[in-house]
From TrEMBL, chain A:
<dbReference type="Pfam" id="PF02934">
    <property type="entry name" value="GatB_N"/>
</dbReference>
<protein>
    <recommendedName>
        <fullName>Aspartyl/glutamyl-tRNA(Asn/Gln) amidotransferase subunit B</fullName>
        <ecNumber>6.3.5.-</ecNumber>
    </recommendedName>
</protein>
<comment type="similarity">
    <text>Belongs to the GatB/GatE family. GatB subfamily.</text>
</comment>
<keyword id="KW-0436">Ligase</keyword>
<dbReference type="InterPro" id="IPR018027">
    <property type="entry name" value="Asn/Gln_amidotransferase"/>
</dbReference>
<comment type="function">
    <text>Allows the formation of correctly charged Asn-tRNA(Asn) or Gln-tRNA(Gln) through the transamidation of misacylated Asp-tRNA(Asn) or Glu-tRNA(Gln) in organisms which lack either or both of asparaginyl-tRNA or glutaminyl-tRNA synthetases. The reaction takes place in the presence of glutamine and ATP through an activated phospho-Asp-tRNA(Asn) or phospho-Glu-tRNA(Gln).</text>
</comment>
<dbReference type="InterPro" id="IPR014746">
    <property type="entry name" value="Gln_synth/guanido_kin_cat_dom"/>
</dbReference>
<dbReference type="InterPro" id="IPR017958">
    <property type="entry name" value="Gln-tRNA_amidoTrfase_suB_CS"/>
</dbReference>
<dbReference type="InterPro" id="IPR004413">
    <property type="entry name" value="GatB"/>
</dbReference>
From TrEMBL, chain B:
<keyword id="KW-0547">Nucleotide-binding</keyword>
<comment type="similarity">
    <text>Belongs to the amidase family. GatA subfamily.</text>
</comment>
<dbReference type="InterPro" id="IPR023631">
    <property type="entry name" value="Amidase_dom"/>
</dbReference>
<comment type="subunit">
    <text>Heterotrimer of A, B and C subunits.</text>
</comment>
<protein>
    <recommendedName>
        <fullName>Glutamyl-tRNA(Gln) amidotransferase subunit A</fullName>
        <ecNumber>6.3.5.7</ecNumber>
    </recommendedName>
</protein>
<feature type="active site" description="Acyl-ester intermediate">
    <location>
        <position position="180"/>
    </location>
</feature>
<comment type="function">
    <text>Allows the formation of correctly charged Gln-tRNA(Gln) through the transamidation of misacylated Glu-tRNA(Gln) in organisms which lack glutaminyl-tRNA synthetase. The reaction takes place in the presence of glutamine and ATP through an activated gamma-phospho-Glu-tRNA(Gln).</text>
</comment>
<feature type="domain" description="Amidase">
    <location>
        <begin position="25"/>
        <end position="474"/>
    </location>
</feature>
<feature type="active site" description="Charge relay system">
    <location>
        <position position="81"/>
    </location>
</feature>
Amino acid sequence: MTATAELMDYADVVARFDPVLGLEVHVELSTATKMFCGCANVFGGEPNSRVCPTCLGLPGALPVVNGKAVESAIRIGLALNCQIAEWCRFARKNYFYPDMPKNFQTSQYDEPIAYDGYLDVVLEDGEIFRVGIERAHMEEDTGKSLHVGGATGRIHGAEHSLLDYNRAGVPLIEIVTKPIVGAGERAPEVARAYVTALRDLLRALDVSDVRMDQGSLRCDANVSLMPKGAEEFGTRSETKNVNSLRSVERAVRYEMCRQGAVLAAGGTVVQETRHFDEATGSTSSGRRKETAEDYRYFPEPDLVPIAPAREWVEQLRTTLPELPWERRRRAQEEWGLSDAELRDLVNAGALELVAETVEAGAAPGEARSWWVSYLAQQANVRGVELGDLEITPAQVARVIALVAEGTLTNKLARQVVDGVLDGEGEPDEVVEKRGLKVVSDDSALLAAIDEALAANADVAEKIRSGKVAAAGAIVGAVMKATKGQADAKRVRELVLERCGQG
Amino acid sequence: MGDLTRLTAAELAAKVHSREVSAVEVAQAHLDRIAAVDGRVHAFLHVDAEGALAAARAVDEALDSGEAPASPLAGVPLALKDVFATRDMPTTCGSKILDGWVPPYDATVTRRLREAGVVILGKTNMDEFAMGSSTENSAYGPTRNPWDLDRIPGGSGGGSSAALAAFEAPLAIGTDTGGSIRQPGAVTGTVGAKPTYGGVSRYGLVAFSSSLDQGGPCGRTVLDTALLHEVIAGHDPLDSTSIDAPVPPVVAAAREGAAGDLTGVRVGVVREFAGEGYQPGVLAAFHAAVEQLRALGAEIVEVSCPHFTYALPAYYLIAPSECSSNLARFDAMRYGLRVGDDGSRSAEDVMALTREAGFGPEVKRRIMIGTYALSSGYYDAYYGQAQKVRTLISRDFAAAFERVDVLVSPTTPTTAFRIGERVDDPMAMYLSDLCTIPANLAGNAAMSVPCGLAEEDGLPVGLQIMAPAMRDHRMYRVAAAYEVARDAGAGRFADRAPELGA
Ligand SMILES: [Zn+2]
């Protein structure tokens, strides 16, 4: 039996069931150092090159809280309209796993730093959906395991495993929603919109790289179904490894269809961890939890409680940036966008990118057009999020400037962008290396035009006799001869001039 | 030159600093003594003759070039409990699971000793991971009490105390989680102090129970112990629980006390620490000591601390709970013992086999008790309840210190028992720490000073003096005054131990 045979049609699912979602988002903070030690907090690098006794969990080593991480946690909490705890502690979450150096994770349990907030998210049609925030708490990331051999890339069945602790101890904020009910058929969309809004918010706060592809923003989606009208939640599954905004939506949708099929067949949904497969868009069962995991939480005795002074919290509140939804309203006014245009921009995840491009000197219309069309298309082709393309807003602004000053045609500009995306350097370097400058020297063009006219004497005669439409063929020949680097409009003018029609 | 090993640390320092003898000669004399007697005592797990002589040579060179001594103890040898990380010597904690492990870093205590010019002779034996009261739980065989080689030297720091009593070192470092400095001090006729929790950095002290562990000084005299206390104490930014305040003036207090006048000092005798289970000779020696204090001018008051009775059960929930988490990191993945890694087994199996082979029975017992006590459903009844008892004990201390300056009791209910006598009876073993545990639970300062020999067996008895948090100097003053009176006309207490012969 294939996986698809076990899925219920989506329309049937939402006709018969109400979905309940719970989203847990882990955000790696972009602090200079790790959560509890002085090691640099940078993505990747030579394995085990950024480690010390503390983040390796060596016997005797002790943690010291990164004050900047606490500050970021409080700012995130404030931006999510949360209460900030007057007093809270870290706790140890005890479980054995090879990539966890101490075999306990220093986290927060019943005393999170921020709790009870909400985030308003804008859906595609402009409707606002309020997602309740249960809590945001601080913790440390684990190392990474690379399981070699075996079919799944997971620890079971692997021949051996390699451990990299560079990520161990990186500061994480875990943001947990309250149960999201009432989204109905829009549940997958709400899930995606929530993670998108959260990502935009975190980016505006400048606390994280929020790159889902590098794991600095990770989402676990809890999904359950209950019969329409019921009040008691159904059994949920927790889908991990959801590494893009699109996957969030797909994973939720898939789980709804899968659980719908299970329930419709009289079965019961198993409480388990599931893995999302980007390639197939399906989820598969993780290892079944034979018994409920008991993490034996207790207050971390190596750290002292955190009691953020109220004055400090209020001072941090004043550092909050313009919130994304306020930002959108302002952009709409300043750039003169219709509701639909704004929505396209937001849905493409391009608003901040356009804003930065405008800030770098580009006209709003041009900036918007680049990001929502050609660059969006390139992101799609390359399978990355728009913001993860290897081009900066400043570089896009430079390309737009080159077009505006006549150095590039739009067609050439796209080639320059390709060059930047392929890592060939700054736009000006790409122009230079690829020799993409517009041929604007009339004498060079005239030589090419004369050559084309000579080679196409019959066409030349037609033009001279007033059939100016025939000029297209000569323009085409000249463009071909100049490898597209001429301004077609100018070529046309010169052709007509040459044939006495100017 | 006389026998340098019979001198106090203060006397040795004076001779070295005046260049009457060299630090190398002092170190060599102690290394010779170790070579002569340690085969019978087994105080050391590792002797670093080369390192010690090099450190001594560095002190000599600095002094010869006219530099002031790096500290009042520069050039004096010391025995370091094998629970402190040393980058040039193995750190095993008396466990097979860390056999041969050489840390890549120094503990803060280790670093401070080196910076003070103290010459580290080697690492001393201990109950595995500091769990025990006899040093019989060491994976490397027991240490013997120099007063009677058939008897235990106390624990867990039996190696450090035995090294002092056997004149193998004039100074030693111990750690005290439930009495592991004071109880060995008592049964070997030496001095040991547990500073206020947070007074001495725990960075690099391999954790047994983080909220209770405290490193501290050991010596044969009160002044030596105070001098060492000031070398190792003080705020450490690497330990979040370290107190950021000036070190209590313990050396000045020891010198003041040595004048032999305790007029105006109020001494409280803890009513609960007497009666059944206490060896008559211990109580007799204790009462004689109290009378001695009265004779020195102290006001003696009987004080009741009703919750001290619950200290032992509370301790045996809190300490195992924390240890079950602290010792989780010994999993064969990064360092230490690895068992069963023949390519056929999973990481989980290797972890389990390694822990089975690497930990001794007492450690396993406590890990199991702690794991149970922290389990969901039992947490409130055990760990939570024990924390409440802890608060009540702190209140008992607070109330008592309203009325008196220091509290006194016997350090331990009996003198040194015979090796093997209590190994099969954990409860009897645990009772050794009945009187010492309250100070660990409350975090205040306490020390043991020898107070004569028990009539029935001629073995040393310890007087425990307890002081409020960060008032460590009070107990040193009382101890120094008592010491002077005790030794008047009788010679130094430590010299009464039978000669081991060389
Ligand atoms: Zn580190």
